[in-house]
């Protein structure tokens, strides 16, 4: 049951988003114990959650530890080459079975009492069984499994038996994903994910991904230092904003619920720039894997900021460099902010590269991504500082009555130019200077939290 207090906060959010007012999200939703508990139940246990890349576990027996909400899971490639997601909790006395972040094993033995499970999660070993567990039904005491499906090398899982298939859940978001995971010839990660804990609410990160205003101020120093080519990148100032920027909102799943949104910027000179990937990588791209419109986005793209509900964020940030004498290269990363508490999250970041990338460039691209977007990255530090401030402000009682303004660039407030003849899925807007993109997340979040979008 939802308390009257929380129901009021959720109803305010839903009404604001669906009535096109875009003002109405209470600050309190960014830091509240009851809302956090409801998120774990209605958001993370109901939907498909990204867990990583198949390339992280290439061999039979390879495994990594991942999370759905705050629940720990072992993602393993079995001896049958099938990928499974097993709850990392022993069925005997509830201890964590393994603590290693990654490894290779055919079996998992709980260190507490020695119960042992195979790669399928089946209970195969019980110490002193003949003395104390003679009639134990091993089939009934295997590890809990999440449904696991993959899409073009990306691993997703859900613990909701009634959830639609992954393809149905991604819906039209696959059209944009394909630009990254197909047109590039496929991608694979460089090393394990980089992760760190921050005193932030997980939604602060997701909300920021659709925020097109903050780069002008939060990240102004990046352009001043010349680390970003502001004429071609999204970190531009007001004098360089052009009509070659787009916001795509309300990208739907197969059930017609919003599931994805993105910001896209093309090169103002209409050059074939491929997000500033060098020629030796571009030659391995696969144009036949996508249609003409998708290839056009890759060919002309300077930056794309892409989110998949609930907490997968992807960036291709072209025309970026570390030192003033370095060549401009793209930054590509997958980011997931997992909740730990209302005011604490763990940020996971993967650094993939196109499969055809030469070894020397693989290292350069990964280093560039870490230098800009990581716990010590010049851009990431700016963002986390802001998210921490928002999370702290939301802690108080008065935050329940503080309504946040999401009217920037909305109908009646800004220059909203809907591209009516667009062939791209979703609603395409001819500018990214708008908070309208944020509404896609908040619409779905409100529906989930009120129990209106899932079984």
UniProtKB/TrEMBL annotation:
Keywords: 2Fe-2S, Iron, Iron-sulfur, Metal-binding, Oxidoreductase. The keyword Iron applies. GO terms for molecular function: 2 iron, 2 sulfur cluster binding; metal ion binding; oxidoreductase activity. It holds the Pfam family Rieske. Residues 48-157 form the Rieske domain. The keyword Metal-binding applies. Belongs to the bacterial ring-hydroxylating dioxygenase alpha subunit family. This is Rieske domain-containing protein. It comes from Saccharolobus shibatae.
